[in-house]
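User: Could you go from structure to sequence for me? I need the amino acid at each position, not a summary. Structure tokens:
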């Protein structure tokens, strides 16, 4: 399936995570273009030791507004801050009431 213009121009973060423990290994790379990101994931997986893979470590691609080429530690911190903000906004005390009680 051909990539859309957006997919070829957008930034993508490659995230390392553990499927057994749900631990995040953070952002390992921010790259431009979905196809480039998927190729790099395959490179990371090919270079991964069998012990590392057996321990549950995997990589996935996530579309991102982070800048391609930025420092992975900085990208990890920014991504984490954005996730925490989203989660705090999704808490029940922040969710709108579907059917607010009538005030008579």
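Assistant: Here is the amino acid at each position, in order:
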């Amino acid at each position: 399936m051909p990539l859309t213009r957006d997919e070829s121009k957008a930034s993508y973060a490659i995230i390392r995570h553990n499927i057994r423990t749900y631990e995040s290994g953070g952002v390992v790379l921010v790259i431009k273009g979905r196809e480039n990101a998927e190729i790099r994931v395959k490179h990371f997986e090919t270079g991964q030791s069998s012990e590392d893979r057996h321990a549950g470590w995997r990589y996935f691609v996530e579309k991102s507004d982070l800048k391609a080429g930025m420092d992975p530690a900085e990208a990890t911190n920014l991504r984490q801050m954005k996730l925490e903000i989203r989660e705090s906004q999704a808490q029940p005390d922040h969710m709108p009431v579907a059917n607010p009680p009538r005030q008579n």
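One structural detail worth keeping in mind: The chain is about 40% helix and 25% strand.
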